[in-house]
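Entry 14. Structure prediction run on the chain below.
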Amino acid sequence: MYAIVEIAGHQFKVEKDQKVFVNRLATEEGKKVSFDNVLLIGDGNNVTLGAPAIDGAQVSAKVLKHLKGDKVIVFKKKRRKGYRVKNGHRQALSEIVIETIVTSGAKPAKKAEPKKETKKAETKATASKAEAKKATGKADDLKKIEGAGPKAAEALVNAGYETFAKIAEAKPEELSTVLSEASSRLAHIVTDTWPKQAKLAADGKWDELKELQDKLDGGIEK
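Output returned:
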């Protein structure tokens, strides 16, 4: 039996006991994690397609370790402009092992309605926070945090983390959860150093922040 499942913004074809390298997950090493966005399940000649996901299907895995991928060099040059920029990047990854593939019954029907209600409540809360932020105009430029792009900054603001001070008080796991819930494409971002960076920014210690960021690679300590 095999399944095609979305994990941290990417689709993988997996089987039981298979080891897979995926974008960094917020789950600690040794802990179990499950993925509900199962797009296809194949069992011999029987193939089940989702629309887009298969209701009740689930892939469970165990996080073996967190690591970094091979370094990729990004070189940018503009002719006759004297512009040359060379950056290195190592993708933050997690190695997981697939433990079970459940074809149905993983998501009880009773939990469907509360989730919708919770989502509506969260949407209203997010909207009110965003409106309050616009009214006060006190949101910080969160893109100054190394590793936080425009989409990640928008997700943080919408979740109520609109200032450096609030991010400084948050735990990296909380910030990772916010990004994962906002979009699967943000789930791979590592937030380990964000509270530390935000604390320096909130205190106005820009020189110290610059020194720290020079030691980072995409927000990750080298």
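The two ends are 39 Å apart (CA to CA).
Filed with the rest of this week's runs.
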